[in-house]
Amino acid sequence: MSQTLTPPPGSAPAPGRAVQPAHPGQPGGQTGTASLTQAQERAERRAGVRSALRRTPGKLRIALAVCVLASIVFGALGFQAARVQGIALEDARSDTSQLVGIQDVRNNLVVADASATNAFLVGGLEPADQRARYDDAIANASIRLAELAGSNSADATELGVVASQVTVYTGLIEQARANNRQGFPVGSAYLDQASTLLRDEILPTLTTLVDDNAERVASDLSMVRNAMWILAAGLLCLALLIVTQVWLAKRTHRVLNVGLLVASIVLLVVGVGGAVLLSQTNSAAAAVRDGPYAATLAASTAYSEANDAKAMESFTLIKRGSGQTYEESFVELTADAAQRLDQAAADGNLDGTSAGYLDDWVVQHQAIRALDDAGDWDGAVALATSADEGGPNAAFAAFSQTVTSDIAENIKATQADLASAGNRSALAGWLLLAAGLAAAVLAWRGLNVRLEEYR
């Protein structure tokens, strides 16, 4: 019989013989066994978690987390909706102020131009009141340009250019005056240059800035409306609490859970109240847009166009028989101004008084044109420059006083209404946030009571 020889300890295995794996208890098998044990432990933990979540206590913990999170999200979304509204309203106030300020600059410049051209008709030393009106208008325009350039960086470059051009314009007007006092015909050429600079460069730039700010205001007010969608998303969180309340009633065979019930009531009541406040804010913003803000734009634009037309009236006479183009501009400007004021009165935003005074002045203008067209140029100039009560300048002064009062009242109402709407929105935001946090605490306490029953 053959014998199997066992190699001595420490010797290499015989060729062709397989190496036996190490015993699990030996060092060679420790790494693989440890990895297998860790994987088994992780799998057991996951299985334990799944098993725990399938049981009622586990489901209660999930419901508790969902309700608390939903309540917090509700408050956060409500606060954010109000915050978006508040920011939009503040931006609308700022952009509205900027827009009206730019229109004020435009109005002052056309008032100055109308005064300068009307005074030019007198010849020699112009009337002191018209000179004072011109100086005041230019000074106001210059001050407002500096203020507006500093209040909105988006308009600063263009307003800086306008300020430089106004300096050139006033220099040309002074040249026109100096020559007109001495009876030099070249004075009208300087007046033409000043008018061309004003109407071809300065006023178009200001009009573009007005349009840009009007777009910003419209965008701001649309954000007030869009904030309602954020609140609508927050109200979905209330549905989660109601669903949980129904599930809990079926699961525990108890109709009510006081904590959840009170949390749901808090969210419902404050949610409805907050929605009403934010909706009122949205309505208030829309009312401002269609009310005093629209009236401000209409009155301000009409005032600017009327003063521009006043300058055209003077230029028609200055050109002595070759001013038909200026008369056509007068008709277009006054027709558009009247249409704006009539529409504002029809919408209930203005009382129609300024529109009536504008019509009176246009009728007076027809008397000037009748004299000039009949060959009585001197009579037409005398009527156009007369300060007598019942004359064209008196009618224009009555219109100016009324329409500037309309502008001041409506911009004041616009700012006040937007500020009031912003305060209402801020109140709604804090109420919604507080309600969300309170509901989170109530939901936690209500569900925690049920969890305690399983311990």
TrEMBL record:
<feature type="region of interest" description="Disordered">
    <location>
        <begin position="1"/>
        <end position="50"/>
    </location>
</feature>
<keyword id="KW-1133">Transmembrane helix</keyword>
<feature type="transmembrane region" description="Helical">
    <location>
        <begin position="60"/>
        <end position="79"/>
    </location>
</feature>
<keyword id="KW-0812">Transmembrane</keyword>
<feature type="transmembrane region" description="Helical">
    <location>
        <begin position="427"/>
        <end position="447"/>
    </location>
</feature>
<feature type="compositionally biased region" description="Pro residues">
    <location>
        <begin position="1"/>
        <end position="12"/>
    </location>
</feature>
<protein>
    <recommendedName>
        <fullName>Secreted protein</fullName>
    </recommendedName>
</protein>
<feature type="transmembrane region" description="Helical">
    <location>
        <begin position="227"/>
        <end position="248"/>
    </location>
</feature>
<keyword id="KW-0472">Membrane</keyword>
<feature type="transmembrane region" description="Helical">
    <location>
        <begin position="255"/>
        <end position="278"/>
    </location>
</feature>
